[in-house]
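Hi V.,

You were right to ask for the full record rather than a summary. Here it is.
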Amino acid sequence: MKKPVAPPPPSFEQSLAELESIVDALEKGEMSLEESLTVFERGIGLTRACQQALDVAEQRVRILTDTRPDAGPRSESGSDLEPFESND
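Predicted structure:
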């Protein structure tokens, strides 16, 4: 039996649109406490996903706009990333 494949995560724009609708729904105050908590929890997850997407985009912009001669992509440890494997 095959494992069910999880759908791809929503795009930043989809997450933001859903988050906006959640805020609108919560501001109306027409949900029960339990419904509100469930929707709020979903909103927190969407907020974190949006923030992570923004962090990645910001890092890409920094790399692209860095004018230092030694500027280039770096790994999380801070070392330069090589575009190809070297056979040294």
